[in-house]
Amino acid sequence: MPSVITSKLVLEYIRGEFAESPGLRLMPWQFQRLWRLQADEARQVIDTLVQMRFLREASDGAFVRCEFLNGLPS
């Protein structure tokens, strides 16, 4: 289990990647591969970013950055 500091760094890094690439779409297994995470770590990161309303799950199961339209996530 990563430490709180490591988790925050991972979250910030992943947020940065999605911010730089607005069209980025990743499946959970791709989070694991790209950022060398265990399955449970990837799920925790994804869940946290969804709770923060930074990411949302698309209909195909991929996770994409939330885009705001009129102050509401689309």
Index terms:
single chain; 74 residues; alpha+beta; Arc Repressor Mutant, subunit A; three-stranded antiparallel beta sheet; two-stranded antiparallel ribbon; 5 strands; disordered C terminus
Protein described:
The chain has 74 residues and is α+β, with helices and mostly antiparallel strands. The chain is built from 3 helices and 5 strands. Strand 2 and strand 3 (63-65) form a beta hairpin. It is globular. The chain starts with a helix and ends with a strand. Residues 69-74 have low confidence and may be disordered.
Summarize this, please?
The protein has a single domain (4-73), classed as Arc Repressor Mutant, subunit A (Orthogonal Bundle), CATH 1.10.10. Strands 1-3-2 form a 3-stranded antiparallel beta sheet. A two-stranded antiparallel sheet has the order 4-5. By secondary structure, it is α+β, with helices and mostly antiparallel strands.
